[in-house]
Design goal:
- With 208 residues, the protein is α+β, with helices and mostly antiparallel strands.
- It has one domain.
- The chain is 42% helix and 19% strand.
- A hairpin with a 2-residue loop joins β10 and β11.
- α1 packs parallel to α2.
- The longest helix is centred in the N-terminal third of the chain and has 24 residues.
- The radius of gyration is 21 Å and the shape is globular.
- The two termini are 26 Å apart.
């Protein structure tokens, strides 16, 4: 459990570092994040994301974050269900409805929360846009996104490709491990198997 938490913290730190470098590298751009702009959790410290958003604003960038799933509700329903019958593209402002759910410190919403349905036959997504950006700039950022990016099933193609290229396949993981072992003399430790620890050589069988 400790190892999994450590890996999760390391992954989040790397992701935030990459996001910061992107915000520094571009000007007057719409920058897409995967997930939400909720801060104040152990994995997403408030100060770190605040610096990233401040850097983006200084360079004229607008940070927008798409969430593939959300637990936020309004009127007893998931917020993404509120636009199921609405014509697309549409952007529904649900910020006042959901911010009431985050009255306790330290968790808070660093983004203005919308529900976005970008294409007629697509899904609806939770969309967080940097709260410190003007409302006109927030809407204009979505206009620019729709005009410049392919939107498949309501999800920006740029983010879909980012998911594909940021994940290592099993063969790639083996290749990286092999390189690290040969180049730096590291020993790859196998993942702990409780079954093998309990049953020794008789613990290789797995139930179908």
């Amino acid at each position: 459990m400790f190892t999994e938490r450590a890996i999760s913290r390391l992954r989040n730190a790397l992701e935030r570092w990459i996001q910061r470098e992107i915000c520094v590298s571009f000007e007057d751009a719409v920058i897409l994040f995967d997930g939400s702009l909720t801060v104040g959790t152990p994995d997403n410290p408030t100060a770190y994301l605040a610096r990233i958003l401040d850097t983006a604003r200084k360079r004229g960038n607008v940070v927008s974050a798409f969430s593939k799933s959300t637990k936020l509700c309004a009127f007893g329903r998931r917020i993404t269900s509120l636009v199921s019958a609405a014509p697309a593209p549409c952007l529904v402002d649900v910020d006042q409805l959901v911010t009431r759910q985050f009255n306790t410190y330290p968790v808070r919403l660093a983004g203005h929360v919308y529900v976005a349905k970008l294409v007629e036959d697509g899904f609806a997504f939770r969309l967080d846009i940097d709260r410190e950006v003007s409302r006109d700039a927030q809407v204009e950022a979505m206009n620019r996104l729709i005009a410049s990016d392919v939107v498949m099933q309501g999800y920006p193609e740029t983010l879909r490709l980012a998911h594909i290229f940021s994940a290592f396949t099993a063969n790639e993981v083996i290749a990286v491990q092999r390189y690290l072992a040969s180049a730096h003399g590291l020993r790859i430790s196998p993942r702990l198997s409780v079954r093998k620890s309990l049953f020794g050589p008789f613990g290789a069988w797995e139930a179908a």
